[in-house]
Structure formats: C-alpha cells, structure tokens
C-alpha cells in the first residue's frame, strides 16, 4: 500500500481497519490437531479468497486495474519487495516491483494481489507451477533481505534502515503431541528480535552513525494474534504507551531528524505527505 500503491499512512490505516476482519478470519477455530497441522504446513489457516478479493478491491479503489502488476517502471517510484518461501524446497524467494541484475523470474508476471498472497499462509501457484507459502518461515524479520537489496540497488551509497516490528509473539503456546512443532512456531516469532540484535551487532557502524533504527512494541500484545481484529483499540493503546516512553520518543525524533537532513541533502521533495 505505501510503496506500490502510494497510499498515505492514514489511507493505509483506514483500509486495514476495513479489510482485516474479512482477511484474518480463520477457517478453523480452537487448537484441534488438524488446525495446528495445517497452520504449520502453511496450508489454509486463513482462506485465500478474502485476501485476494480485498487486495484487488484496494488496487481498484485507487484507479488501477485489479490485475495490475507489482512491476513499476516509473524511475522515481518507491522500490518494493516481498519475501516468500518456495513450497518445493523451503528456500527463500524475493518478489520485486523493480528490475534487478540478479535472477528475477516473477518481475514480468506477478500481479499486486499475487504479491500480497505469496506472503500469506495459503499456497500460491504461478505459470511455471512453482508454489509459494508464508515468507515468515524463512524471513520473519526481513532486515537482511532489505540490506542485501539496498546494497545491490544503490552500491556505495549511504543507507538508512528503519525496521518496524509487529509486536510480541501472537497467540498462546500449543501443547500436546505437537509440542515440538509448537515450539518451532514460538522460535519463529522470537527470531524477529534475535535477528534484529544480530544485525545490529554485525552493523555497529550504522548504529553509531544513526543509520539503523528498530521500533517494536515488545510488551502488551502477547495475546493478540492476526485474527484479533476487534483488539484494534488495545493495539492502539499499547502502541501509544510504547511511544510515550522517553527513550523511544527520543529515538523517534532522532530518526525523523536524520530522515529530514538526508532528504534535504539529496534533494528529495514531498508532495501531499508522500516522499519520493
């Protein structure tokens, strides 16, 4: 929404509020073994049809064809990529809106709604019959992918990375005969902060120069999962509390100051709240 569709933050928030109930209503409820097994296989925790319909409607609502490609050849457009996982061998895949010197097989065929779907739990098939499942199984925190993409796209340029987390682990621990698989799920979510810590340690110079920022609500959201769309007020309250923390407020201001100074130095312009 932000990058490819050029929607404002307010427009994104409004669209998400309207669409989240339709998209994140689980097919099965409870903790029965079939539901857990399907979730762990990335097999239909949420129905793919509402996600497709909602994404197509959002694309159409801003004046694009429902089958518009993720590809964007406008030279001043924001470059966007999404992470997915190949169903056949579990390897990572990157689907981009921009051309790339590396292997980029989906650049000319992937639609915007398909890009949204390849990051979800429902399998997605393309004409070459490859299947793609939830990118979180390999890139729950895609900061390393963002680093690689930016290094290859702007070699030798100074870069500023902002990483925004989605809160603490969603849902409750799973128990029973599938305990080992449940532990793997918890590890996947915990990995977001571990990945952040590792990346910061590996890129200490970026931290020192104020070019690496991480914002993540780490307390208060442990019982809120994707399907808890009715918890939007709680999410807002906990997030406001996080932003009220003096240390976080100072970090936000430092990030804003760095972005403003960088934009002025590079001759960036803003129009209607959208920065290019």
From TrEMBL:
GO cellular component term of the entry, any: membrane
Recorded coiled-coil stretches: 182-209
Keyword Glycoprotein attached: no
Positions occupied by motif DGA/G: 134-136
Annotated GO biological process: arachidonate metabolic process; glycerolipid metabolic process; lipid catabolic process
TM stretches of this protein: none
Record PANTHER family: CALCIUM-INDEPENDENT PHOSPHOLIPASE A2-GAMMA
The protein's name: PNPLA domain-containing protein
Species in which this protein is naturally found: Lepraria neglecta
